[in-house]
Fold each of these.
Amino acid sequence: MMVLHRVRYVIFILFIFSGLGAAIYSPFQLSVHAQQPTGSIPTVTGTPAGMIIAVNLDIDTVSVYSGPSSYLYPAVGVLLKGQEAPAYGISEDQNWIQIYYPGVSDSVAWIYGPYVTIVRNGRLPEVESPPSPTPASTPTIDPTLAAAFIAPVTPTRLPTFTPPAPLVIATFLDDKSTANRLPMGLLIFGLGFMGAFGTLISFLRGR
């Protein structure tokens, strides 16, 4: 009677342990799905990693532009002395560096290369320049206002060319009518000699 009671006790204990084991390792366990959160999940954005540029210490501020030119593109901000910024690439003429600049379109700006120093050594890839912005207005010249500063030109007739009279070259012919005449100089000399001779005779008679 005592042996039968112990056998029942052992069978009861085994039954309890087998039930617990079946409950733990049963392949028909119910899968519990956690509730998925509703709404938008915030995205975390970081700064790009790579080459770093720093503004030279001998410059207080440097302007950054929306493109690789201070004439074709507008200024979008500044960097201070010693300030660092990640670099994306370099312009085709190797003078401007494209940097990460938050707060502007696509967080991209350009800075003049000689004003900065590359902190992390490496070679920047060459990037294409963005299209230059279209000017808000195209200057036009008022033809009425421009005409006020242009002196009117009065049309005149072209001068007519009148040919000169034909050139006449004078020719001297020998005067044959005076070939037998007394030379005028000899006549004057003779008259003067006669006058002097008469004066001499009058002077001698007066003495």
Amino acid sequence: MDAPEILKKIRTLEIRTRGLVETAFAGDYHSVFKGRGMNFEDVREYQPGDEIRAIDWNVTARMGTAFVKKFTEERELTVMLVVDVSASGNFGSTTQSKRELAAEVACLLAFSAIRNNDKVGLILFTDRVELFIPPKKGRSHTLRLIREILFFQPQGRGTDPALALDYLNKIVTRRAVVFFISDFQTPDFSRALAVSGQRHDFVAIHIHDEREKLLPNIGIIMLEDAETGEQLEINTSERGTRTRFAQLADERAAELARILRRNNIDAISLKTNEDYLPALRSFFKQRERRIGVR
């Protein structure tokens, strides 16, 4: 794609996702992600029912009557988008690839964060860390993130989420909201995930395509692993082949669910052939009820 086409695609994505943020999503985002702590604001006279621990003893001694400290929530968050740009993300059996869906979801999350005055950073990874953009604010910064997610040309083809998570844990030292976006076609990464899940507010977003589970009945075809180049010829007209293919996909999904559940990681599953907004909103509503936010 040449520069005008790239700019047009980024602009189209911005218009669509900003519209969703303004009309449907920003309140969901704001309600379930809290700031890092509380900032001291002022003091006021003690009232019955106030916490004794909140009394400012220095002011109380000076004024001769009890005063308590007032605090406000430190709202600003650091949001990290950790996005898998390995070769398997280029696959898509519908109008968009997994990588394009990942970019649109990341764009929505980034604009939601910016609207809430949060900082957003980006890590792109394959079997190596391809790119790190430190967290910042602002529209131009957000558009740069989206451009990189859509059009960055990675050096690697494979997937190593453990390496990306180790890098995240080293480079982001304060607690952050982490959206980890991947198709999770990867070896086990439980150890690194356990550390990240404890350090950060971690949400896994699983991007997948229906053809990764359901084979069409179209006779003999050649399948190629996008990351390794390995090829396999199979006969899709055989029911047993199609059934076994679906079973293997289910087993992989179940194993991923077990890993995430064991580490208390929130997860969202999105498909390239479905509107992602209902699934995102449903997740945020469930999370809001679970943590008791009012």
Amino acid sequence: MPEVSDNEKIRAALKKVRQVEIRTRRLVTDALSGAYHSVFKGQGMDFEDVREYTPGDDIRGIDWNVTARMDRPFVKKFREERELTIMLLVDLSASGAFGSREQSKRELAAEIASVLALSATRNNDKVGLGLFSDRIEHFLPPQKGRSHILRVVRDILFFNPQGKGTDIVPVLEHLNRIVKRRAVVFLLTDFLQGPDGKLPDPQDRRNDTLFRTLALTRHRHDLICVNITDARERALPDVGLLTLEDSETGQTIELDTSSTRIRQSYLDENLRRLGALKRGLGQIGVDSLTVETGQPYIAALQKFFETRGRKR
């Protein structure tokens, strides 16, 4: 088989990025952009101008310097500070390469990140990117513009990580150190971590550091967790003897999937962990949603935004 040249690889990568951009631009409907805008409002008020005081105005808004100069009372006018900073933290660990359908979890994460980035662009917001595995792999400071968004998509799809495992804590700590202004942070991960490659259980004391760091990030920023899943990680097919390999640790296990008891036990344990994770995030005030490869997600995003807007 002939070797693919570097130029051909670059052209193929650019084509893939362009395909994602075209697809996500179609998906970012006015309805989704409207839902995004209504939920993620500005972080404060900017001074705009002064006007003469009228009866009923709050006296705390009086600008005493202008009042003294003009010899009659004036009050300050403010406008909502609309521009936001959106940070996308995307898990590039080896488990993201898995996908039982046409799309891998990493590709789904890239597509959702693209939708969020384009929604942010429509609202004139800045977008930054953090890629991580069991370490911080890559960080892009928040910027605006189409070329920047295309780079975000390209990096998510094609950045070659050094690590295989998953550790969410370092990237959150790095974010908390360098992003001083309050941001809207989307954490896109499958949450599969640790030596067993399973979802973290808030009741397990080994996960204290993770949930403390999530809570701290929630205090400093508006944190939203997007749990990227695949149906085959939740339930086993009935195909007889099956060897499962953890892509992050290389550990293997053999299961007899023809056993109803084993399939049900596997499903029950995964549902328990999913439920525990959602409850644990809720207890520290972190909103979350779950998306699955091969399933439509725009409606789920829109519903999430609308529900969040009503709660607020």
Amino acid sequence: MKVYLVRHGKTEWNRDKKFQGQKNSPLLAEGREQARLLGERLRGTSFDGIYCSPLGRTRETAALLEPVGEIIPDDAFMEIDLGRLEGETFADLAPEIKHLVDLFWHHPAEFDKKLTGGEDFDDIRDRAVTRLEELIRLHPEESRILIISHGALLKSIVNHYEGRGTEDFWEGPFLQPASLTVLSFEKGAFRGVESLGDTSHYA
């Protein structure tokens, strides 16, 4: 079984360096082109299940990929809820919460949801991996599953299977917009990462 993980294309808030979380920002023309090129790369690949975060930027990316089959929205694959950080840039943040940005990027194990009113990295890993493993059990052994989601959410899945702890959340390649990661499983057991954050279709 192969699981294809796709991050949405580049958005306006990516460009503006705003925290998106579960708020939405539309794709830029660049992001739409990234998704279209990835769709060309995946053309001819059949999927037995296609699942997508319900947020607008992921749904738009999914449509541009033009996969054959029903695209099923799934709340388990939504981005991390960043609470009071969402829609803000570092410059916009109140002085008393600017330290949350440093925690998010440099000390993720200390990023406490009580400080934001949202989620932490353990929360998204637990909901994402729980749902992915349900899907692996639901689909036949030789299936291909496509999931269109978000940077932190997809990173949490990769980290789980690579055995990386929360304190090392951002180690390894950053998953760029419209990047492709492919995980391999056999009889439900993780076998390896075949592709990680690949953007060769538009780089």
